[in-house]
Design brief:
By secondary structure, the chain is an alpha/beta fold. The chain is built from 21 helices and 14 strands.
Length: 570
């Protein structure tokens, strides 16, 4: 793969007449000429009290800098924004691109020979990977790890996946508010770090290790363990070797690396959000990853890690079983282990001597939980550009289903859902639309939403849902996600009417609206887009520039050099 150049990268030349000013400003912070004789290494630390996944990053940042000093570097720490999904009034996917751009510009414009990037959460890890792929300076990601498991009546529980399960029971009236609060306080949210299942946060951390962007074994260590601090210091030491050997992201982010990461996604039942993120990172790295790659690799990659939400255990328990490195060891016959990694060694070297410590949690290829990766791409007249269904998290009896459409009200409140869907039966197909990249904006994680209370009280816990938004990696259910084109730009999802028959066949890879083609075209011709939600500011930039889910939801100007054609230049 050819190295990608970034024209605005500027490295300080110490013979430059302005260097005296540069040195003076460094001295004003208490550093010396001895410090400045070392290579400057950036430490990108998005610590924030508005992000519990990053709460421990002050400690990790200090450990990284300790390692850089020890290995002969000069660490300078800088912040960027960070995002925890539940703290924002809008889907944080729109801020992934903002974080990627700010991180990219800081790395590119500063006199850094290399950089260590700390991140944990859903959009933060992909944002940093997108940035380092573009800038292409020596870099390592240090992930922050998982929350510890909680316990409730002898069962290990974790936030979000179990929250959804208990919330359905609460809405159905089978448990009370006191029991729900007890579970929440004692089980779900007991330490900092990523939600303790293979939700999006732990999925993107596993993705970073599978891509080769972290040191081996980094992904699964719990956030509060001393080993996480040890990993931070080791990462600070290692970046100096990458700088010395000039090992860059372009040496690591090859097509083989992306296919390895997809296989690890399938083997762990990881979040469908990885599809959007991996495509975005790949395109920044010059690799044309498509939905068909996910479909192809899912078909022959077995699901072997019995971790929630598709399995039974938490990520902490997966760590005790050997972690993502042990999953990769078991998968190694299916991986390209010749790829370079941030350890400065190949994946094969990294996996030498690794063993599975609990074969009930990390199964063998010969005895998988299921024979494929539990993910299918579906297409048809309702999703011409594709959609995805996580079959491993779905109800088997619903994977081939035909039923009448019921339109979920756009407000999304339970009261409005119950009123609008009072007529529904378990056989209906719920249509939740205008929630895509542009329509929401930002594709919120509302995929599993929409079950009306009257069906919950009848014991119904799943229905077929067809949506143009996303689903949290911690969620489950028979949900067709990321429908493209989305409703807000005139995709066929926009013209589905109550009572239209919708047919899903996940095995065949089809999703169709059983309405005459001429009628579909008539409805599309009469459709008009909803009014703009935002007309100024960053959110309006997102709406103007974002691509659809199959293209990674990046901005056009980041990957398409022809994006300005036809636009006036002021």
């Amino acid at each position: 793969m050819t190295e990608r150049k970034t024209p605005h990268v500027r490295e300080i030349n110490l013979a430059d007449p302005f260097d005296g000013t540069f040195r003076g400003h460094i001295r004003s912070m208490g550093y010396t000429d001895f410090d400045m004789s070392r290579p400057i290494i950036g430490v990108c630390n998005p610590w924030s009290e508005l992000n519990p996944g990053h709460w421990h990053f002050r400690t990790l940042g200090e450990a990284v800098k300790r390692g850089i000093w020890a290995a002969g570097g000069f660490p300078l720490e800088f912040p960027t924004i960070s995002m925890c999904e539940v703290f924002h009034d809008i889907s944080t996917l729109i801020y992934r691109n903002l974080m990627a751009m700010s991180t990219e510009e800081m790395i590119a414009s500063m006199p850094l020979k290399g950089v260590v990037l700390l991140s944990t959460c859903d959009k933060d890890v992909p944002a940093q990977a997108m940035a380092l792929a573009t800038v292409n300076k020596p870099a390592i990601i240090l992930t922050g790890g998982t929350r510890l498991a909680g316990f409730y009546e002898g069962e290990t529980v974790a936030c979000s996946t179990d929250t959804q399960r208990f919330m359905w029971e609460y809405k159905a009236g089978t448990i009370g508010e006191e029991e729900l609060r007890e579970v929440e306080m004692d089980g779900f949210y007991n330490t900092c770090g990523a939600c303790g299942v293979m939700g999006t946060a732990n999925s993107v951390q596993s993705m970073a290790e599978a891509l080769g962007l972290t040191l081996p074994g980094c992904a699964s260590i719990p956030a509060v363990y001393a080993q996480r601090i040890h990993m931070a210091e080791a990462t600070g030491i290692k970046i100096m070797e990458l700088v010395e050997r000039d090992i860059r992201p372009s040496d690591i982010l090859t097509r083989a690396a992306f296919e390895n990461a997809i296989r690890v996604q399938m083997a762990t039942g990881a979040s469908t959000n990885l599809m959007i993120h991996l495509i975005a990172i790949a395109r920044r790295a010059g690799v044309n990853l498509t939905l068909d790659d996910f479909d192809r690799l899912s078909a022959d990659t077995p699901f072997i890690a019995d971790v929630k939400p598709c399995g039974q255990v938490t990520v902490e328990e997966l760590y005790y079983a050997g972690g993502i490195r042990a999953v990769m060891k078991e998968l190694s016959p299916l991986l390209d282990t010749s790829v370079m990694t941030a350890s400065g060694k190949t994946m094969a070297d990294n996996l030498e001597g690794v063993r599975v410590r609990n074969a009930n949690i990390i199964r063998s290829l010969a005895s998988p939980i299921q024979p494929d990766g539990g993910l299918r791409i579906v297409r048809g007249n309702l999703a011409p550009d594709g959609a995805v269904i996580k079959t491993a998290a779905a109800s088997p009896h619903l994977l081939k289903h035909t039923g009448p459409a019921a339109i979920v009200p756009r407000s999304g409140t339970q009261e409005d859902i119950d009123r609008a869907l009072a007529h529904t039966t378990p056989g209906h197909v719920l249509i939740n639309r205008y929630l895509g990249p542009i329509g929401a904006p930002g594709m919120p994680e509302r995929g599993p939403a929409g079950l009306p209370t009257h069906l919950l009280r009848q014991g119904v816990r799943d229905m077929v849902r067809v949506v143009d938004c996303r689903m949290s990696g911690t969620s489950y259910g028979t949900v067709v996600l990321h429908v493209a084109p989305e409703a807000a730009i005139g995709g066929p999802l926009a013209i589905v009417e109550d009572g239209d028959m919708v047919a899903l066949d996940a095995e065949a890879g089809t999703l169709n609206l059983l309405v005459d083609e001429q009628e579909i075209q008539r409805r599309l011709a009469g459709w008009s887009p909803p009014p703009a939600v935002y007309e100024v500011g960053y959110r309006s930039l997102w709406i103007d520039q974002v691509t659809q889910a199959p293209e990674g939801c990046d901005f056009r100007f980041n990957t398409d050099p022809d994006w300005r054609k036809g636009k006036p230049v002021s």
